[in-house]
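User: Here's a chain of 123 residues. Predict its fold as tokens.
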Amino acid sequence: MFRAALRSTTPAFKRGYSAAAGEVPFVAERAHVKEHAAKSGELWRKITYFFAFPAIVAGYYNAERIAAHHHEHFEHIKAENGGEAPERIVYTSTSATRTSLGAPTLFSTTLTSTSMSSPLPRS
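Assistant: Prediction complete.
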């Protein structure tokens, strides 16, 4: 009996942040962020499919075209020299050359003659 009288005189506890309380700013902001993320994700998906993948394919074909042109040029140079690749001058490592002071400098180089068909310069 005392409880019933106490209950009727005290105000009920209000749940101000519940869904029944109406629109809460935090929930609205979270929904806005979720909507923005969906739009942004869709934009980046379109950028990837319609720009990035075609750019990769175009870059691949451009590299193949340049490599084929280089190979044709190299074969032309070999044909001009009787079927062999000509010798070329290769600048060796700067650390192999010593100056009058004993230490290698940035501008000290040595010239060696190598064949163009060898991938690495001879020492």
